[in-house]
Each structure stands twice: as structure tokens, then as C-alpha cells.
Amino acid sequence: MTIRAADVGDEDFIVGLVPRFVESGIAGGHTRDEVVEGTARVLREALHAQRPGELLLIATDERGTPSGFVYAVTERDFFTDEEYVHVSEIAVTRSGDGTGAALMDAAEAWSRSRGHRLMTLNVVDTNVDAQRFYARRGFAIAHRHYAKRF
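Request: output the structure for the sequence above.
Response:
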């Protein structure tokens, strides 16, 4: 497996995985269409903008076929103003083959290389498999985010 920076040629692959984000539930009272369309928009913008403090990586298998991606952004801690990395999106074509772990390892290495001491991510309550994956990697619930739609 190879991990590399994403480029504009990866857009169809990345956007093609976006529907995976609604397979295990939807966060914040959004509709499936809102999640898919909004996520695709943000990822397209990130891919084309290549902003400092953002990371967009692609995992490829031994044949060079894309097998997943991770998108991470630099944020600031509300309490300490310290920079940290938030994994905004991660998706793989097939769970259990090590792609997700390799992408997370790469995101963590990038974060550490920038001197960050914290990495965060969000998981919907109904995505138990993802919760187990992140718990095995040392992540723990830091708080719950509640939403009320009007």
C-alpha cells in the first residue's frame, strides 16, 4: 500500500466514496442529500485549493488503484488556542484491509511533524464499527455534540 498526496485527478474517486458517510447514520439532523452534497463540495474545494494546514491523502493498493482517502484540517483549541489536527473525513473502499489504519497513521505522522499534540474526529453514534476502530487507535470520547434543527 502507498500513501500519497491527492491531486485533481483523484476527484472522481474521492467524491465517489462520499456516499459511504451516510451508510451508518447521519449526524446533526441533516438529510442524506445534505450530507453527501455538502461533503462532496468541501472535498472538491479542498482538492482544488490545496490550502496550508490541510491534508488530503490517497491510499493506493499494490496495483496503484485508489483504496481510500483522508482529509484533515488544522484547528485551534477553544480553551488553549493551541493548534491541533481534526480528521474531517476518512473513507475506504473496503473495511478491514488496513487502508484506514495506514491513512490514520499518515495523518498522525503529519500532525506530529507539525508539532501538534492533539488529533480529533467525529463519528455518528450509530457507526459502531468506526467507534471500535478509533478506540483501538487510542481515541476516546471527549464530549458529545448535540444538535437541534428548527
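The first strand starts at residue 2 and ends at 5.
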